[in-house]
């Protein structure tokens, strides 16, 4: 709900809006201070990060989110992302946009009241986009991969969009594995080079996942805008699903889903795996990208495989056999991750 129109008129740049509401959250365990003039924004932030405890003693990032009283027609144009050096902008319309300074850990956005009322859209395209971009710039290295663990050994499931990362991670979680993240995982720069952090509180699946998992056939599909339809599952509502906010990584799997193929694990080039992982390192100045690439190189001392599969039912026994054939399960030390003493 939009609280009130507090910005002065005329205000052609939509700046210096009074933002009387504020709260603190801990996405991925890092501190985020958010100020706004809308309860919708705070409710969306709670949905994204309310389950995260504080874990890292790092300076906070800051977001200022102003909701405008105007209620323009629903924007039909797609989001555009533009970046130069340490600045990045997400642009959709004159009343729906956001900007971040990646060096200062600061971002602001303006959205119309109708955009703010669509909380899945607001979370995905604005709040989470800004917060995770700032955290990546300051503290993290992003990896386009899901992460699950068995017997203390983490598997990083890498691949292009629609390679099946989230579906395979969800299938593992249903099968007794520990769930860490569904699509993006993060290395903490300066921490243990083999420990990933993720969002274990939410699983996002594409709508076709309803055909793979019978329990999802009656689950509501959300529309985040721009035709993006998804299923969101809060892991706290999933019986028997075990989660963890972080995991050591023993294996890196490059997924190659092929109809009719028999599950097969084949050693994969670490140089090629690094090249693929580095493709998402496109923001910020060169020193940031160099630091992120260095952390990926350290991670690649783990074993790397290509995993060809078709059926999830056949894939899971193959992954379990990979883990259980090894005699050295990984361990996780909180101090190695850089956790704050009073977390």
Descriptive overview:
It is a single chain. The chain is of the alpha+beta class. The chain has two domains: 21-138, no CATH class; 141-200 and 238-337, Phosphoenolpyruvate Carboxykinase, domain 3, CATH 3.90.228.20. The chain has eight helices and 20 strands. The protein has helices spanning 39-49, 113-117, 119-138, 165-174, 270-278, 286-299, 312-324, 334-337, and strands at 21-25, 32-36, 61-68, 80-84, 87-93, 96-101, 106-112, 140-143, 145-150, 153-158, 178-181, 185-188, 195-197, 202-206, 222-223, 229-234, 242-243, 246-257, 264-267, 303-309. The strands form three sheets. Strands 8, 9, 10, 11, 12, 13, 17, 18, 19 and 20 form a ten-stranded mixed sheet that branches. Strand 5 and strand 6 (96-101) form a beta hairpin. The two termini are 33 Å apart. 38% of the residues are buried.
Average of per-residue pLDDT values? 86
Question: Can you tell me the CATH class of the largest domain?
Answer: Alpha Beta
Enumerate how many helices there are, as a single number.
Answer: 8
H/E topology pattern: EEHEEEEEHHEEEHEEEEEEEEEHHEHH
Domain tally? 2
Structure classification = alpha+beta
Largest sheet: 10 strands, mixed
Principal-axis shape equals globular
Counting DSSP E segments of at least 2 residues, the number of strands comes to 20
**CA distance, first residue to last residue:** 33 Å
For the record, the CATH architecture of the largest domain stands as: Alpha-Beta Complex
Backbone CA Rg = 20 Å
Helix content: 25-40%
Strand content: 25-35%
CATH topology of the largest domain: Phosphoenolpyruvate Carboxykinase, domain 3
Q: Which residues sit in consecutive blocks of at least 5 with pLDDT less than 50?
A: 1-8, 328-343
